[in-house]
Design goal:
The protein has 330 residues and is mainly alpha-helical. The protein is 49% helix and 6% strand. The chain has three domains: 23-139, no CATH class; 151-253, Lysozyme (Orthogonal Bundle); 272-329, no CATH class. Helix 3 runs parallel beside helix 6 (81-92) and helix 14 (272-284) runs parallel beside helix 16. It is elongated.
């Protein structure tokens, strides 16, 4: 019995002398490791916290709450702040995560499962870059303004034509046999012509504001009726795709379904050089062109519709390589 007791005592002290394993560390310990000056330790801490998702990010936010509060209030975070901010961004996969405290999934299937469990819509920015990259489209100030309110963005939009209460637009189903040369009218007129929302909702027949029929990928892709608020977004970035992405993201965050229409897999947007060629060619044909820098506006799309009809093409206003070729030969 004494021998057994002695052996147990030796074993206890031997185990006590062993270095602590990962299981012995708390999640707060890993939060501190994530800010280590040692790259290996820092990576281990960040990876561990990423595996815990929002809980891991919350742990970091709690451990460094004082530093976050000081930086948010003064813009000064001390010598360690760059490593703290970098680690927060890496755990959250979002730039300036200290301000939002939001965890973003990089595994789509995990994101779908979490969205289903919480009965919330899922937002996917895979085609727009990563939220933790400084200059990605997904990390633009408009996208970030959708995540947390930004008075400067609200002022900018109001100064550039944004009308509160006016919808930016809707994805719609185009009635069969519709004359695609028509591109403008108010919502009441569009409803009379047989247009309906793709999500099954009701178009606002009391609105007198003009809505433009827009095919971002041609008639084979989704169709939209867009208003002046769509153009207000384009005053920041003239890209139609950008405006659609920003506005659709806002809708999805409010619980709207994804777009019903599918973009054609073989759709290849023209280069800026080719868009400029179209503008210059239309200008030579006598059309009024607002710019020759490759920025396609809705007036130009109307001009394209007219020329497409002359060429016997589908007049959807979408500039394509085929249209450029026909235009060059005219």
């Amino acid at each position: 019995m004494r021998i057994k007791t002695a052996l147990l005592a030796v074993l206890f002290f031997a185990l006590a002398a062993l270095p602590a394993s990962a299981d012995d560390k708390s999640i707060e310990d890993f939060a501190r490791m994530a800010v280590s000056a040692d790259p290996g330790i820092r990576t281990e801490g960040i990876d561990y916290l990423r595996n815990f998702r929002q809980t891991g990010l919350d742990a970091m936010m709690q451990v460094y709450a004082k530093e976050i509060e000081r930086f948010a209030a003064t813009g000064a975070g001390g010598a360690e702040w760059p490593r703290i901010a970098s680690a927060l961004d890496a755990v959250a996969m979002q730039k300036d995560a200290y301000a939002s405290g939001l965890y973003w999934y990089t595994d789509l299937e995990l994101a779908k499962a979490q969205a289903a469990a919480q009965h919330k819509p899922i937002l996917s920015l895979r085609l727009l870059g990563n939220l933790n990259e400084e200059f990605s489209c997904a990390n633009s100030r408009f996208f970030r303004a959708l995540l947390y309110s930004n008075p400067a963005i609200a002022n900018y939009l109001r100064e550039n034509g944004w009308q509160p209460g006016l919808p930016w637009g809707y994805e719609v189903v185009v009635p069969k046999g519709f004359d695609l040369r028509k591109s403008r009218g108010d919502f009441r007129e569009w409803v009379t012509l047989g247009f309906r929302r793709a999500d099954g909702g009701t178009l606002p027949t009391t609105a007198k504001d003009e809505a433009i029929l827009f095919f971002p990928a041609g008639v084979r892709g989704p169709a939209f009726l867009v208003t002046a608020n769509f153009n207000a977004i384009k005053t920041y970035n003239i890209s139609d795709v950008y405006a659609l992405a920003v506005l659709h993201l806002a809708d999805r965050m409010a619980g709207a379904p994804p777009f019903a229409g599918k973009w054609p897999e073989d759709d290849r947007p023209l280069s800026r050089e080719d868009r400029m060629k179209i503008q210059l060619a239309l200008q030579k044909q006598g059309y009024k062109v607002s710019n020759t820098q490759g920025m396609i506006d809705f007036d130009l799309r109307d001009n394209i519709r007219e020329m497409q009809a002359k060429f016997g093409m589908t007049p959807d206003g979408n500039p394509t390589a085929e249209f450029l070729g026909r235009l060059g030969r005219s």
